[in-house]
Amino acid sequence: QVQLVESGGGLVQAGGSLRLSCVASGLTFALYTLGWYRQAPGKEREYVAGIGSGGSTYYADSVKGRFTISRDNAKNTVYLQMNSLKPEDTAVYSCEAGGNWGQGTQVTVSS
Q1: What's the burial of 2, exposed, middle or buried (CB within 10 Å: 0-12/13-18/19+)?
Q2: I want to staple 49 with a disulfide (CB 3.0 to 4.6 A). Which of 40, 69, 72, 108 is the partner?
Q3: DSSP for residue 41
Q4: What is the b/e burial string over 36-75, where b = at least 16 CB atoms within 10 angstroms of the residue's CB?
Q5: Are 37 and 62 in contact (CB under 8 A)?
Q6: What is the per-residue pLDDT for 58?
Q7: DSSP state letter for 31
Q8: What does the DSSP 8-state code read for residue 109?
Q9: Each residue's pLDDT expressed in tens, for the chain with a length of 111 residues
Q10: Which residues pair with 6 in a beta bridge?
């Protein structure tokens, strides 16, 4: 079955950086559009960024210019480089592929 496993979350000060990783198995990774989403306490899950099978990238306005999504098809891995982090970026970040979801990784940004 499809499995997505995120890692790389943690506690960081405002202005800092983190890189999230999501390793996928059980699917033909290179064919999928991949997405990162986040959910803060008491809020709806929101779209953060996506990357198509051809490498096209898409970003929410709130992270544009600060976050970069990338993929390594040889490693079945999608990344989210997060720079200039803000306290409002605090959330559980999850990756998605073909309607399948990982368990999420917590990102906490202190002010």
Answers
A1: middle
A2: 69
A3: T
A4: bbbeeeeeeeeebbbbeeeeeeebeeebeeebbbebeeee
A5: no
A6: 98
A7: G
A8: E
A9: 999 999 999 999 999 999 999 999 999 999 999 999 999 999 999 999 999 999 999 999 999 999 999 999 999 999 999 999 999 999 999 999 999 999 999 999 999
A10: 22
Residue 102 structure tokens: 């990982």
Amino acid present at 73:
N
- Contact (CB, 8 A) for 92 and 104: yes
Q: Which residues pair with 11 in a beta bridge?
A: 108
Contact 48, 93 (CB under 8 A): yes
Q: What's the CA gap between 37 and 94, in Å, rounded?
A: 5
Q: Which residue has the tokens 């959910």?
A: 39
User: Which residues are bridge partners to 59 per DSSP?
Assistant: 49
CA 111 to chain centre: 22
| Amino acid letter, 101 | W
Residue with tokens 């200039």: 84
Which tokens is 23 given? 């390793």
